[in-house]
Amino acid sequence: MWLINTALRRPFTILVLVIAIALGAGLAYSRMAVDIFPTLNLPVIYVAQPYGGMDPAQMESFLVSYYEYHFLYVAGIEHVESKSIQNTGLIKLFFHPGTDMSQALAQVIAYVERSKAFMPPGTVNPFVMRFDAGSVPVGQLVFASETRNLGEISDLALFRVRPLFSTLPGVSAPPPFGGNQRTVLVRVDPERLRSFSMSPDEVVKAVASSSAILPSGTLRTGDLARIAAVNGVVRDIKELNDVPIRNGAGANVYIRDVATVENGSDVLTGYGYVNGKRAVYIPVTKRAEASTLDVINRVKAELPRFQSLVPEDIKITFELDQSPLVKNSLRTLAIEALLGALLTGLMVLLFLRDFRSALIVVITIPFSLLAGVVGLWLTGQTLNLMTLGGLALAVGILVDEATVEIENVNTHLEHGEPPRVAAFKAASQTVVPRFLSMLAVLAVFVPSLFMTGVARGLFVPLSLAVGFAMLSSYLLSSTLVPVLAAWLLRPKHAKHVVPPSGGIARMHEIPPEGGTTYGTYINLINRLMKVHWLAFACYLLITFGIVTLLAPRLGTDIFPNTETGMFQLRLRAATGTRVERTEVLLQKALATIQAEANNNVDISLGLAGIHPPSFPVNVIHLWTSGPHEAVLTIALKKGSGIRTEALKERLRKRLPEVIPNVALSFEAGDVVTKIMNFGAPTPIEVVTSGPNLANNRAHAEKVMAELKKISALRDLQFDQPLDYPTVNINVDRKRAGQLGVTVEQVGRSLIAATSSSRFTQPIYWRDPASGTAYQVQVEVPQARMNSIEELQSIPVSLPNGSHALAGDVAEMSFGTMVGEYDRYNQQRMVTI
User: In this model, does residue 508 exceed pLDDT 50?
Assistant: First the structure.
C-alpha cells in the first residue's frame, strides 16, 4: 500500500527511476557478454599427449596408462576416458558436479609432471585444456590458394597470421587444420643407398654431426667484446649437400650423392578441404569469459590486416559463422516483446475501448524487460540463449500484471471516481492478488536452484531472467501504471450497475441473463458450480487421459531440435586406407551431397586423415582415428527450404551406392548440439568394458546385432578400428647379435625408411629471414617404400664397417593390430 501511495505522491521520482532503468539497461547491454550459452562450468578436462612414432599399443602402455593412474588421485574425479592411436593419446577427465574446476585443473597439471617421470625419454609436455562452451569453434578462418601447396599455406598461417589472430581479445586459436609443419627434407634414394652399402642411419648421423647447436663465446678485441659464434647450424640448406657421409680410404660420399635437400613439410597425414579444394583453416575458438559476438566481430574486422600478412595468391575468409544463432535470439526477443506489447494493447483496446489504457499496458512491457536485463547484469549473467529465452518467456506472463491493474482502474472510473482516486483504489485492491500470482509463477522456477552440474548452469540463468522480469513488472504495475493512469485516463460518467444474480458473476453493466457472450459464459459457470464435484472429476479424468496417452509419445531432450541448416558427416573407409584414397571418397561424397541438395550447399569444410603429431591440441577439437577417416561439415544456403533431417535420410540411401563399403555417421554440425554432447561425436554411445579386449569385442558384436533391431537408431558402427593393417617386423636378436648389430640400430634405419629421423634424432635449421627454427629430417620418399621387399632391402650398418640388409636380421610379414585403444578408468572398452 505504501508503495502505491508513495508513487502517486511523488510521480516524477517514479519517472526518473524508470528512465534510470532504461539508461542502466543500455549500459548493461554494452558491458554484458553476448554468448551462445551461459557459463556452464562443464566438469571436463582434456589432456592431449603427442609422441611421434609410437604405435597405439605403445601410446597406451608407455604414456596414457601412467596418466590414467595418476589422474585418479585428482580431487573430484568421476571417471577417466582415453583414446590411443599412432603418435597421439587423448585423455578426457570427467569430474563430479560442483567440483572447483580451477583447483582440479591445477591438480591435473601437477600430476602431469609427476606422470612424466615414468615415461620414455623425449616425452614432451602434453596440452591440458578445460572443455567449456568456448571449446567449440564459433567459425573457421580459411586460407586457400590456387598456386601454393598446403605446407606453404600452413607455415604462413602458423607463423604470420596466428600470432596476430591469437592475441585478439577473447580469441583462442589452435594450430592450422589440414596442413603440416614445415621441415627441411633430406630425401634419400634407397637405390643409391644400396649401391654404396649405406644405411639410412649413417645419413642421419652425418646430418646431425654437421648441424649441431653450439654455444657462442666472446672475443675481446681492443675496446670491443665480440660474439664468437660458430656456424654449427648451416645458414643455407643447400650447404647440407656438401656434408660428407664417408671419407678417408676410398671415394668420399656426400649427401648429394645419395639424397636431395629441399624445403618441404613433414610426412603427410591429412588434407584440409574447403568447398572441394585443398585448403588450410584455423578454428576460431573463444575463451570462456569472452563474448561470441565480440570475438566474431573482431575477427571479421581484422580480416584485411590478416590478408596483408600473406602473399596475394592466398585468400583469407571467415566461414561457418555461428553468430547468427545469437543474433536470431536477440531478434526473436525483440519481435516477441513487440508482438506481446501490440497484441496485449490490442486486446485492452478491444475490450476497454480506450486507447490510453492500451498505451499504458504497452509501455510497461519494454521497461520490465529492460529492468530484467539490469538485474541479469548485476548478478554477473550474460545475454545468451537461456537468458534471452527467459525474457522471451516472461513477455507472455508479465503483461498480466499491468492488464489486471488497468482493467480494475477502468472499473473504478466507470463508478464515477476521479482518475487519481481510481488508480489508488484499483492498485490497492490488486496488490496482494498480483503479488500472489507472481509468486505462483516464480515457484515453477524454484527447483532450478537445487539442480547441479550442467542443468544448473543452463536453467538458473533462465529462471533469473524470468524472475527479474516478473518482479520488475509487479513493481511497475504498482508504481508506474497508477501514475500514468492518474495522468492519462479521463474521468467517466457513472453507469447504472445491475446487481449480480449468481455467486460467480461480478458487478458489471451487462446482466448475466443477457444474450451476450459474457452473459452466456456467466450462465455456464453458474450451472457448473451446482455440479462442481462432477465437473472437477471430469477435469481430472480428461487430464489424466491426456497425460497417459501423450506423455509416453513425447521425446526427452535438453534442447529441442532446430533447423540450423548444418550437419557433419564422418566417413570411415576400410581400416588403414591411405589418405589419398580417403580424399577421393570425400570428393565423391561431397559431389553426392551437392546433387541431393540441388546445389544448395553454401560451404563445405572437411578433413581427410589425421592431425600431425606436431599439432596434438587439434585432436581435442576434431578426433579422427586414422588415415581412413574423413569428416565433412556442410552448411546449406539460407532460404533453400531443405530440411536437414530429410536430406540426411536421402544421403543414407544414396551414399552407399556411390561409395560402397564406407561407414557413414551423421554428427552434430551446429555449436549448440556439439556443446551439449560434451565433445562426443554422437549423442549416444554404448560401451562394452572389461579386462579382456577380445571378450569385449565379442560381446559388443552381440550388442550391435540387437541394437540394429531398433528402427529409431541410425549409423550404428564401432567407433575404433580393431583390425588395423600392419607390417610385423620381428628382429632375430640372436642373429643380430652374431652380426654385432642391436635392435636399436635396425630400428633406426627402418624408421628413417618408413617415417623420418625426426622421431629418433632431432636436427634443427634456423631460417635467417624469419628467425624461425625448423627441424631437419632424413626420410625415404613414401612412394618408394611400397612393399615388404623394399623394406627388407634397407641396409643396416655393422660395427666392422660392413653392411647387412634389414631382411637378414628380421622377419617381415603382413598382419593386423588394434588401431585405437579406448579405455574407461584403465579398463579397455569397445564403443558403439
Answer: no
